[in-house]
Amino acid sequence: MSMPMAKGLFHRAVVESGSTLRLGDPVLNAKLAAAVVAELGLSKATIDKIQTTPYPHLLEAQAAALKKLQPAPPPGGPGMPLRRGAPPRLGFGPVVDGKIVTRHPFDPDAPQASASVPMLIGTVLNEQSPSMTHPELEVMTEDEMKKRAEERCLDKTDAVVAAYRKAYPNVKPVELLSRMFSVRTNAVTQAERKAAQNAAPAYMYLFAWQTPLLDGRPRAFHCSEIPFVFYNTDVSAFATGGGPEARALAATVSDAWINFARSGNPNHSGLPNWPKYDAAAGPVMIFDKTCEVRNDPDRELRKVVEQAMS
Question: Strand, coil or helix: what is 35?
């Protein structure tokens, strides 16, 4: 998710758990669009009827078209890099058409058009928590966790699991799995390319605070930082649980976003010094019960995953 902030369009830029480096392939996406239209029984002459097609029918057509064109999606999945040499994953989204969208967002480098725009780039610790809607997975065994990891890591599963287990020796298997599939690779690459411009700064964060709701099963899930950014933890008690701990962290996070909107710098007196991003140190602000800066805390883990997908 990205959003412009403050005085003008893209005067500040915030990217939260969605660092997109490259857009879809126009040829493949055209095939996917044609397949959806065919599933709906429409043609060029009747395409206007898509405007009144019930939403559930659109979802069914999308799913059917994806399954026909790519019955077995390439290993990797959301949050993990694509295996080198694997066919692109099909999906719905914008493409580089050469007219309206003339280049990929952050590939092969950061765009010169936004070089003067400060960026705040971040991710959450868990992104996808398998047990959020399946409580029985909280007692997942180590063997079951490895089996699920194989769906994305294939023959490199043992190496990936071993690296994560070494880094997090005491977490439950289901927690390890959720961290394993929350790789920061794209976010780090985006921040590195932004920093390489030596123009406006980038600041990186990792939101690690875990909600107490549903017995804590959602953990630090996708978008969980949003109520904290807007100081809405009480309004969003369905996601945060409300309460003084969430409220205190919201004050800290909100002040950072407010200062960033005002000046392009998120630092304030309630936080330890938050350095601008540089590739050598890789400073990351960890938002949790205690907020702290760590230098590239998962560098070695990212290397293992990237090697596994090579």
Answer: helix
- CA torsion through residues 220, 226, 228, 234, sign: negative
The span from the CA of 209 to the CA of 60, in Å, is 36
The residue assigned the tokens 């109520």 is 227
Reported as a single tens digit per residue, the pLDDT across 132-160 is: 999 999 999 999 999 999 887 888 899 99
Give Cα 184 distance to the centre of its chain: 7
**By C-alpha distance, which of 245, 249, 269, 265 is closest to 257?**
265
Q: What is the CA radius of gyration of the chain?
A: 21
Q: Which among 183, 182, 151, 150 has a CA at the least distance from the CA of 72?
A: 151
H or E, element range at 146: helix 142-153
DSSP secondary structure string for all residues of 266-303: ---TTS---PPP-TTT-EEEEESSS-EEEESTTHHHHH
Q: Where are the domains of the chain?
A: 2-20+117-127+182-308, 24-92
Q: Could you tell me the CA-to-CA distances from 309 to 77, 150, 153 in Å, in that order?
A: 11, 12, 7
